Amino acid sequence: MLDREGYRPNVGIVLLNDLNEVFWGKRVGQHSWQFPQGGIQHGESPEQAMYRELQEEVGLLPEHVQIIGRTKDWLRYEVPEELLRRQHASRAHRVNYRGQKQIWFLLRLVGQDHDVDLNASEHPEFDSWRWVPFWIQLDSVIDFKRGVYQLALSELARYLSKGIRMQQLAWGSPLDLFQSFYADEANQPKDTKPTDKP
Q: Where is this motif: Nudix box (predicted)?
């Protein structure tokens, strides 16, 4: 399913643990690492596609995660022509298909690490995984996806930073975590209100 501009609708998933580290999966039989992602099927909403891909690629069910936020708009990347030539034999496919347009979701794992099952589907995407810092090393991402990864994490970081929910953080900015904010709020005397200043 392609849009008029030749982009395939897709979802990307940034999964957090309690330390705000992100799930980083190693592609089967490759030395490349990435976030879970996958196409939106006909009739699916982005959220429905996200839950399906999460189960297929990571083995997690809706009860294992909490949605924290998502990107407002589609983020696009183009697939290099040489890669398209290898993927598609027909000229028509190469002309029509340009790349992916993605809605990215930020999720919190409320289950346990042992709930992750990379063999949940018949065709696993990953053969290994680990937790890494939120601001991933961009040079570890395949070059044509780096821009989208940077945009997605910068936009989603606002959900983890107090006082700047509606703006993008510059790449690598310190995350002034809501988690700390809520902990501070719980310890406030009842006759005072917590400040929202950074």
A: 38-59
Distance, in Å, from the CA atom of 105 to the CA atom of 62, rounded to the nearest integer, reads 13
What pLDDT digit, counting tens, does each position of 100-133 carry?
A: 999 999 999 999 999 999 999 999 999 999 999 9
Contact 28, 37 (CB under 8 A): no
Cβ proximity of 103 and 153 under 8 Å: no
CA dist 55 → 37, 100, 105, 188 (Å): 11, 21, 14, 40
Q: What CA–CA distance (Å, rounded) separates 54 from 164?
A: 28
CB atoms within 10 A of CB 15: 24
Global confidence as pTM: 0.82
- Find the helix or strand (DSSP H, E) in which 195 lies: none
C-alpha span between 122 and 56 (Å, rounded): 9
**Can you list the domains of the chain with their CATH numbers?**
7-186 (3.90.79.10)
d(CA 128, CA 155): 27
